[in-house]
């Protein structure tokens, strides 16, 4: 590894310092984020967990330049979120798949590629590759309504992977799915992460999901939204589903639960 | 289809019964008057028979209208001035031109309203105000003004059609173009899509169900506009002209046959849009 490469891996992909975001509402100001500091390194899988209103989604949206912070600074790939967005540095997966009903699965994955001006042959090649990646080969010509909810969400992940973004931001992508499908997708997501070496920011309100997936778990609490704990996972990168029954896993899950409790998240 | 057949037939039968009954009630006075002058006493069945066969009844019976329509469509050459097909064709041409113009204007205004803040704040009240003016009042002015600048014939009538038909398109398309939710718009933003990409790839396809609903209303309104536009032009040709001529000479049968023709025409045009809607939305996975 050369010095330059070492430097590159050392520089954080996302760096937030003293981040504040206050929404002005009719009921007065709402502190969605208060003094948030966090660094995410290349190849990290970082989960944000906390009860609703803790600002985890808002934080992700700030990284994606969908919200502007009212104070503090944040860089994505060393530049402002707006510049990062304009250079298409990240793929964003929403809670709902949001596939267009008038486009086939292939057409939906092609959508961002068309917008970004990839050539037709490049589009074809990429659609094929990401469909393969999320195990949806053969569904290219199907319409969204012909697929189950889990398959639709996989297609939406494929869409976020289709262009060359190193960062994947996921906002409760499996929140609307049932437990069994969710387990399966969690497993697939880990494999995908291992293969692509992306940096992933993942919002969830499920403790097992956060512990199973992450290299780091950021515990947040509401009113005002802030980070109360950052837990480094001691689990190996290779994680079969039954790792969730090991003492190590339960230990981390326990810490997350403690962290959530310490934030007085369930006082009311 | 089969399920709705019987109820529809029942309603149609009820309308006919009511129609025949009303024809008796409304035309009885004339029949009795005629009988009195002739010094004869009408039995009930004679009275009924007479009310259904008058030359200039207050309300013509359905079979009289049907006979008139048959005579003026099938039995007349379509080039004849007395052919209803000829008159329908004239009204149809200005209806369609007005419909196309109204749709283009309506979509144009809707795009402006959705994308331009100034237009968003200012245009809608004017659009609504335009529809509160009775078309009967404004139609002669449009004809006269356009005639003064040398435009006559099809276009003035089409403009009256446009005046009526752009409104539902504006209202529907503003709603339709705004139908994508915040998530879909955010998604476009994460891809750094341009405004025109957002329009062509998201907003316009999303608005299709709204567009078709609007087009159906616009088509019916356009036909009304074309007929109204024919009234002040001196009743030369068209269904409106037939209505006007009919009322000049008390030809109620002619009026009713023109009315039925107009209704049938509107039904066909709306049905065609409905068909295109079904096919399009089905192909778009939105039906």
What distinguishing features does this structure have?
A: 268 residues; six-stranded mixed β-sheet; three-stranded antiparallel β-sheet; 9 helices; 9 strands; B: 287 residues; mainly alpha; MetI-like fold; 2 domains; 12 helices
CATH architecture level-2 label of the domain at 3-89 and 165-262 in chain A:
3-Layer(aba) Sandwich
- Give the overall form of chain A: globular
- Largest β-sheet summary of chain B: none
Portion in helices of chain B = over 70%
Task: Output the helix-strand order of chain A.
Answer: HEEEHEHEHHHEHEHEEH
Major sheet: arrangement of strands of chain A: 5-6-7-3-8-9
| The level-1 CATH class of the largest domain in chain B | Mainly Alpha
- Per DSSP, what share of the residues of chain A sits in E-state strands of 2 or more residues? 15-25%
* Approximate strand percentage of chain B: under 5%
Q: Return Rg of chain B in Å.
A: 24 Å
Q: For this structure, what is the CATH homologous superfamily of the largest domain in chain B?
A: MetI-like
Number of strands of chain A: 9
Largest sheet of chain A: 6 strands, mixed
GO molecular function, one term (chain A): ATP hydrolysis activity
Organism (chain A): Thalassobius vesicularis
Protein name (chain A): ABC transporter ATP-binding protein
Keywords (chain A): ATP-binding, Nucleotide-binding, Transport
């Amino acid at each position: 590894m050369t010095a330059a490469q070492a430097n590159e891996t050392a520089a954080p992909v996302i760096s937030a310092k003293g981040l504040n975001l206050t929404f002005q509402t009719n009921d007065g100001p709402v502190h969605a984020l208060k003094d948030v500091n966090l660094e995410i390194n290349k190849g990290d899988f970082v989960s944000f967990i906390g009860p609703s209103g803790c600002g985890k989604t808002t934080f992700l949206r700030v990284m994606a330049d969908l919200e502007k912070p009212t104070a503090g600074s944040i860089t994505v790939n060393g530049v402002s979120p707006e510049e990062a967005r304009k250079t298409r540095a990240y793929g964003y997966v929403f809670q709902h798949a949001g596939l267009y009903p008038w486009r086939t699965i292939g057409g939906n994955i092609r959508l961002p590629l068309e917008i970004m001006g990839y050539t037709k042959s490049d589009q074809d090649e990429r659609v094929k590759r990401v469909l393969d990646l999320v195990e949806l080969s053969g569904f290219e010509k199907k319409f969204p309504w012909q697929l189950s909810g889990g398959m639709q969400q996989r297609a939406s992940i494929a869409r976020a992977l289709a262009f060359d973004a190193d960062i994947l931001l996921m906002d409760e992508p499996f929140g609307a799915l049932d437990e069994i499908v969710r387990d399966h997708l969690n497993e697939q997501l880990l494999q995908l992460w291992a293969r692509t070496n992306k940096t992933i920011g993942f919002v969830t309100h499920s403790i097992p999901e956060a512990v199973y997936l992450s290299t780091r778990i950021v515990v947040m609490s509401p009113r005002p939204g802030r980070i109360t704990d950052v837990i480094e996972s001691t689990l190996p990168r290779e994680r079969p589903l039954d790792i969730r029954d090991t003492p190590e896993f339960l230990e981390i899950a326990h810490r997350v639960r403690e962290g959530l409790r310490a934030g007085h998240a369930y006082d009311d | 289809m089969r399920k709705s057949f019987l109820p529809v037939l029942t309603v149609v039968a009820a309308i006919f019964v009511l129609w025949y009954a009303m024809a008796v009630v409304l035309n009885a006075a004339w029949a009795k008057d005629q009988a009195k002058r002739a010094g004869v006493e009408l039995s009930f069945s004679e009275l009924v028979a007479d009310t259904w066969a008058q030359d200039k009844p207050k309300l013509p019976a359905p079979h009289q209208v049907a006979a008139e329509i048959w005579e003026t469509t099938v039995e007349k050459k379509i080039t004849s001035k007395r052919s209803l097909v000829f008159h329908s064709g004239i009204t149809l041409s200005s209806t369609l031109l007005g419909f196309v113009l109204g749709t283009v204007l309506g979509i144009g205004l809707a795009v402006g309203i959705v994308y331009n803040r100034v237009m968003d704040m200012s245009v809608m009240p004017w659009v609504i105000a335009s529809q509160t003016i009775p078309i009967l009042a404004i139609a002669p002015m449009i004809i006269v003004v356009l005639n003064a600048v040398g435009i006559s014939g099809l276009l003035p009538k089409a403009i009256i059609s446009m005046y009526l038909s752009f409104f539902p398109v504006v209202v529907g398309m503003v709603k339709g173009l705004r139908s994508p939710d915040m998530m879909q718009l955010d998604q476009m933003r994460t891809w750094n899509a341009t405004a025109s990409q957002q329009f062509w790839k998201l907003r316009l396809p999303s608005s299709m169900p709204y567009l078709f609903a609007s087009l159906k209303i616009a088509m019916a309104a356009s036909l009304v506009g074309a007929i109204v536009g024919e009234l002040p032009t001196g009743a030369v040709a068209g269904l409106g002209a037939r209505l006007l001529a009919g009322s000049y000479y008390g030809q109620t049968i002619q009026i009713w046959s023109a009315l039925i023709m107009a209704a049938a025409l509107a039904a066909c045009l709306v049905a065609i849009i409905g068909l295109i809607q079904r096919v399009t939305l089905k192909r778009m996975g939105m039906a």
